[in-house]
Amino acid sequence: MSLQLHHQVFKQDKDAPWVVLIHGLFGNLDNLTVLRKPLAEQYNVITIDLPDHGESPHVDAFSLSLCVEGISALLDTYDIAAAHIVGHSLGGKAAMMTALMKPEKVLSLVVLDISPVNYPPHHQTIFAALKHVDLSVVTSRKDADQQLQAGIQEAGVRQFLLKSLYQNDAGDWQWRFNLTGLESNYTNISRFEAPAGRQYSGNVTFIKGGNSDYIKREHQADIAALFPNAKARIVEGTGHWLHAEKPQVVVNLVSRALQSANQG
């Protein structure tokens, strides 16, 4: 039985194209609401929780190929032959891998601030801060926030992480993401092992945060080798969370990319 990803469907019109929105590391399907709401006026939209995130199953070993399996199964569930796929950060990696492994299921690709490359580990501080939180003594999100402050100064990052804190049926506070599993399989998150000999020749748009270093000039060759029809757009004055910092600009760029792919 294939992996069943938790998701939400926003069906607008049976004849409208489908768009799948994929969040990044430590996130969930609510993270791209800023994109989902305007896109759902013209498209049928599915938002998903990646494995080990949100309300999707916790798995033995997180991998991008598992993400592809879940996305592909989801499209089959709704008899969707192909969809546009939009992903941010880790979600962008999952989107790119889906296009390479299942190109027939991908109408076009929009990748928010990530490249198809191996990144050096850079989430150790966040893992350490999350593990420092003693959930057994937490009585509120404010409690957890105070514990997180020891390792994470940026209030915005803490607030993002705290969106995945919830109380189970017994009233105990828990993280929705699989903290232990994500840390132990972090190599599969930071790396991008493209399937040998594969390319995706459809429409691809990479949207970079102007102040972010996730997409660098030296990544251009890797991008071109895998996605020969890729275009690049830059949102000036934004970091990695470009859709949160300049939502309207990013919405416009994503909408144009999808429109261009539909006309193509």
TrEMBL record:
Gene3D superfamilies: alpha/beta hydrolase (3.40.50.1820). It comes from the Bacteria. Coiled coil: none annotated. It comes from Marisediminitalea aggregata. Keywords: Hydrolase. This is Esterase. Residues 17-247 form the AB hydrolase-1 domain. GO terms for molecular function: hydrolase activity.
